[in-house]
Amino acid sequence: MRPRWLAIEKEFPLLEMQEVDVDQQPNFKKEHQVDHIPTYIFYGQNNEEILRLKGLVEVDDLKAKILPLTDQ
Q: Residue 15: which of 39, 44, 37, 36 has the closest Cα?
């Protein structure tokens, strides 16, 4: 998944990404109700969840989901 995110980060430079290994941080998995790997959780400016995607997602599909959330 990392190569997909590198492509996304180039197109959306204001998007901040945090990668979490839930095996190393089991509390994160519980607190954020991650029940599928990979899970992408997008937060708005007030730290509210605005989008959650589960499973492998192609770059074009990621862009289509992210674009409406940005001012770009």
A: 44
Q: Which residue range forms the structural domain that includes residue 44?
A: 2-67
The answer to whether the pTM exceeds 0.85 is no
Q: How big, in percent rounded to 5, are the helix, strand and coil portions of the chain? A: 40, 15, 45
Instruction: Give the count of beta carbons closer than 10 Å to the beta carbon of residue 62.
Output: 19
Phi, psi of 40 (to 5 degrees): -115, 125
How many domains are there within the chain? 1
CA-CA distance, 48 to 46, in Å (whole number)?
5
Q: Would the pLDDT of 11 be above 90?
A: no
